[in-house]
Design a protein that fits this description.
The structure is a single chain. This protein is an alpha+beta fold and 155 residues long. The protein has one domain (5-148). The protein has five helices and four strands. The protein has helices spanning 5-13, 32-45, 50-64, 119-128, 142-148, and strands at residues 72-74, 78-90, 98-108, 113-118. The chain has a four-stranded antiparallel sheet. The protein is globular, with a radius of gyration of 15 Å. It starts with a helix and ends in a 7-residue tail after the last helix. The site of zinc ion (ZN) has 6 residues, from helix 4.
């Protein structure tokens, strides 16, 4: 697949200081299309889908909202905390919709690892298969998400 002009525009909006101060690309110098292709291949290799990962992220966020900003236990191994800060962000892919700055933190008691993600992450993974560029402070590694969130394969 080749990068389209449209994707060049999207990639430009992902740079530092356009939509967010930090941007979405980190130190990644690859074309957006290649970032998407590589993560898609990784997710397939792990026997998963972006939808399954995003669905689990959403499910845990919804379960964690009961804690009103404190950690709550979800299932056997997980603790989830959801807190919101002021402000909203648009999706850099340009589709309609605006996302509250809601942070969901999931701790896995078994692996002792944790990950924090936003509502925009859930949307970008679900709709675009985008986990941010390598070296971005907010990059989510598909394998880590699957591991920490205990994502189940689609039946
Ligand atoms: Zn979008």
């Amino acid at each position: 697949m080749k990068q389209t002009v449209q994707m060049d525009k999207i990639q430009a909006s992902m740079r530092r200081g356009v939509i967010t101060l930090e941007g979405f690309l980190g130190t990644d110098t690859r074309k957006l299309v290649d970032i998407l292709i590589d993560d898609d291949a990784e997710v397939r290799r792990l026997g998963m889908s972006h939808e399954a990962i995003a669905r689990r992220m959403l499910e845990l966020k919804q379960a964690g909202e009961a804690g009103l900003g404190e950690f709550v236990t979800v299932g056997e191994q997980l603790e989830v905390k959801v807190d919101a800060v002021r402000g909203k962000l648009p999706c850099p892919f340009g589709d309609p919709g605006i996302f509250g700055k809601v942070n969901t933190t999931v701790r896995n008691k078994k692996t002792k690892k944790e990950v924090t993600y936003t509502d925009l992450h859930i949307h970008m993974i679900w709709a675009h298969g985008f986990y941010e560029g390598k070296g971005s402070r907010f990059r989510l590694e598909p394998a880590e998400l699957i591991d920490i969130l205990e994502v189940k394969r689609d039946e």
